Amino acid sequence: MTVHTTEHTTGRQAEPRDAGARSGRNAILRAARRAFTLRPYAEVTLRGIATDAGVSASLIVKHFGSKEQLFNTVADFGPDADGLFAAPLEALGRHMVLTLVHSRRELQRDPLLRVVFSLGNTDERSLLRDRFHEQVTARLTTLLTGPENALRAELVAGQLLGLGATLALHPSGATSAADAERIADLYAPPLQRLITG
Amino acid sequence: MTVHTTEHTTGRQAEPRDAGARSGRNAILRAARRAFTLRPYAEVTLRGIATDAGVSASLIVKHFGSKEQLFNTVADFGPDADGLFAAPLEALGRHMVLTLVHSRRELQRDPLLRVVFSLGNTDERSLLRDRFHEQVTARLTTLLTGPENALRAELVAGQLLGLGATLALHPSGATSAADAERIADLYAPPLQRLITG
């Protein structure tokens, strides 16, 4: 069963009410994302994440539970895929572009890009990549109809990762300054062509 | 002046002739790429890279010179951009896709993707990203004609990063198995549309 924990509702605990708790929680998530994407799972410790986040290890346990539960929160692409794929096939390209741009601008997070950071890792295997395959690429493959759906699904995933990457790499660039609808005008038709096949 | 050292000719020394020297050299480059993309420049040491590569620090000096010279080799996108951009504008999309796929398959390296790994870094600034802006995005912006060339250049860079990312993330996937010409059939028209404007 896929655990649909997100950064917004953990199921363990209600959303923290005050800004202090929320910023501590966000600092933990940022540090955990760095740790789990850049190092093998076995080498990651709650103590190391706590030091990086500037909080106590017990605060991590309070917010997220065990190391495994924290990993599940960070590595889970399920809710992000739910959001990205929530449109009819014939309108999916534009919906994906707008969802990704809005997520970056309003939530300060990219739905998918963290999986790419894990490629800098020396490991051949990565739990994060396994989750991505299952929750993003394989799911998209089953959504698409027509020939070469696996190939097209991988290329669609690539285009989404590429849009997130270029937004992150050019925080003061033309794309970051552009209207989301204008980005969609330029970037959605290619995506839609791959989706429609 | 841009130093056009590549992984293939350093200018310091002729290409190593035997496979042993070449594999040591490649191990150093892989370790250096990891180090410079994942850690702040000041924290990277030749000793650390040597340990990661399983060689002596003196071998690094012999092959690449100083830490700064090694960084220049790893961070330089000039020769990669030369290869990617070496086609007339009206045929550039297909040329870029084929060049990227061939580089991955024949040289086991992506021309651009290392810049994305640097996003996992905690630094706000990154010399690697500065080089990417100058040697890839800004250069592409001046190549493109018509309106919104900066925006289109960033989106083209995104599509190239996305193609490299999806190939790297799915080493046993449909894209990795597909004929390069078939990938270009699907992926080049969108790129070309952004290039032509």
UniProtKB/TrEMBL annotation, chains A, B:
<dbReference type="InterPro" id="IPR009057">
    <property type="entry name" value="Homeodomain-like_sf"/>
</dbReference>
<dbReference type="GO" id="GO:0003700">
    <property type="term" value="F:DNA-binding transcription factor activity"/>
</dbReference>
<dbReference type="InterPro" id="IPR050109">
    <property type="entry name" value="HTH-type_TetR-like_transc_reg"/>
</dbReference>
<feature type="region of interest" description="Disordered">
    <location>
        <begin position="1"/>
        <end position="24"/>
    </location>
</feature>
<feature type="domain" description="HTH tetR-type">
    <location>
        <begin position="22"/>
        <end position="82"/>
    </location>
</feature>
<dbReference type="Pfam" id="PF00440">
    <property type="entry name" value="TetR_N"/>
</dbReference>
<protein>
    <submittedName>
        <fullName>AcrR family transcriptional regulator</fullName>
    </submittedName>
</protein>
<feature type="compositionally biased region" description="Basic and acidic residues">
    <location>
        <begin position="1"/>
        <end position="20"/>
    </location>
</feature>
<dbReference type="Pfam" id="PF17920">
    <property type="entry name" value="TetR_C_16"/>
</dbReference>
<dbReference type="InterPro" id="IPR041678">
    <property type="entry name" value="TetR_C_16"/>
</dbReference>
<feature type="DNA-binding region" description="H-T-H motif">
    <location>
        <begin position="45"/>
        <end position="64"/>
    </location>
</feature>
<keyword id="KW-0238">DNA-binding</keyword>
<dbReference type="GO" id="GO:0000976">
    <property type="term" value="F:transcription cis-regulatory region binding"/>
</dbReference>
<dbReference type="InterPro" id="IPR001647">
    <property type="entry name" value="HTH_TetR"/>
</dbReference>
<dbReference type="InterPro" id="IPR036271">
    <property type="entry name" value="Tet_transcr_reg_TetR-rel_C_sf"/>
</dbReference>
